[in-house]
What we know:
Blueprint: E1 2-3, E2 6-7, H1 10-20, H2 23-30, H3 34-48, E3 53-56, E4 59-62, H4 64-85, E5 98-102, H5 105-122, E6 127-131, H6 137-142, E7 148-152, E8 162-168, E9 170-175, H7 187-192, E10 194-200, E11 205-206, H8 208-215, E12 221-226, H9 232-236, E13 242-246, H10 247-256, E14 259-263, E15 271-276, H11 285-300, H12 310-325
Parallel strand pairs: 5-6, 5-7, 10-12, 10-13
Antiparallel strand pairs: 1-2, 3-4, 7-15, 8-15, 9-13, 9-14, 10-11
Amino acid sequence: xxxxxxxxxxxxxxxxxxxxxxxxxxxxxxxxxxxxxxxxxxxxxxxxxxxxxxxxxxxxxxxxxxxxxxxxxxxxxxxxxxxxxxxxxxxxxxxxxxxxxxxxxxxxxxxxxxxxxxxxxxxxxxxxxxxxxxxxxxxxxxxxxxxxxxxxxxxxxxxxxxxxxxxxxxxxxxxxxxxxxxxxxxxxxxxxxxxxxxxxxxxxxxxxxxxxxxxxxxxxxxxxxxxxxxxxxxxxxxxxxxxxxxxxxxxxxxxxxxxxxxxxxxxxxxxxxxxxxxxxxxxxxxxxxxxxxxxxxxxxxxxxxxxxxxxxxxxxxxxxxxxxxx
Length: 326
């Protein structure tokens, strides 16, 4: 590679020649033959229009121009080593790095909030930004709008690395005074009650439970359709409506609202929550550290790994396909 006629590969040879003041010693240092090192010296002399090393008696000495080149050459090579050749270290305690997430309010509540609390203890200068889920989350990741996409597996891409954070299932939630919540939650009772559900963005993409019920041709009475998981409790409290909610989220909401939970009276495949980053950032130490903190936070709240189920994977694939058509 040349820069203004200078073969940049010759900088290493120049540094060795200026340091050793000997073609043979420079050759040993460079692991080159003496003839190859002599050839490099010849090209350097041609470029600088100076002999650089001259024979005086039995020793080689540096010309005035060569003496002037010692420090600049060493500085340039050191700059390359420190900024390009050497992988920079990441120190959470001193880093002021900004990390941008894209996540739903559900993910923010059950994972990001406790993880950010955890990270604040060891990385007090780091900054974080959380963006709402868009209709094209992977595109936002690839364009560099966000550093980490934290979402369900069917919203991620196989083109980029990811790591499983946790798996979550569903429960039915209702107001503590709702008489239906004091009974056994049968399929008949579940379908007879008014429901609150979530649909996202202008495309009105359904939440997984809503999509799954329609796929199973189970008709629910949808009293309220809202735009986020976080608004569901307020729309359930004080009514006889119920909602189908992620278990981890329901546990959190039950701490703040007078909600009670019961099991869903039929099988709904669980969802898997992943953290994904652009493949171009696979060696970014700060991002990998944040991912490790997310994983440790998730595992502290319950098991993160479950046996894979081929049927569940097939359902997730169908849901992804339906979302992409919207």
